[in-house]
Request: fold
Amino acid sequence: MINLSTRSLLHGRLACFVDWIAPGVNHDDAIRVQAAEVRARISGQAVDDGLTIRSTPNSGSFAKRTGLRRHMRGNTVVEGQDVDLPFVVSPDTVDDEKLDSLLDRFDRYAAASYPSTKRDRTKSSVVLDFVASGLRYDLVPMLAVPGTNERQVLIRRDGERRETSVQQHIEFVRTRTKESQLQAGRVQFNECVRLLKWWRCIREGASTSGLAVPSFLIDLLAATAFDQCGVET
Reply:
């Protein structure tokens, strides 16, 4: 059995640690303003290029409040406060439905909108890296689903098309976070997700087998645990 003083010490350390790995909230308003600006500039370039943008919903760890601080220990860089910006397009041509073609176009839009800003290209997005502020914005092209703004099609590198819902992903986490705030335990649902992400970063850094655990899987595992167990005191 853990005695009361040890339990209290562990609880205090956990409380400090949970707060420490979270991104600072002091710049949230500035992030929202800059994200809106990025959306407007990129969408303007798309309109000029003849590409129809249906919507740009909130997405990712910033919207779900599950992101990690940029540095865990010293200069160890982790996922940090990245901001996902999906751009849901209505394709007019066959090329508009191809991932490489869409990424080429969004790379041009980013270069025209922010010529002095560092850009990177991932397998499914174009990243704008604002080095001075430590913020990165992932421009993620997706395809619209006719008749609804609540579902989108994510195009995979291998050509697979996966229907999803950015809005429902956000609600999936937010609902459980809100429920956890009504319980007596210290670690809220989104903080549990954040702790698992921190653990993933440690394990992936030490792994020689190419370990990679998707963030969505972590959301699902944490949700299953919360739905079954709630938040313990």
The two ends are 16 Å apart (CA to CA).
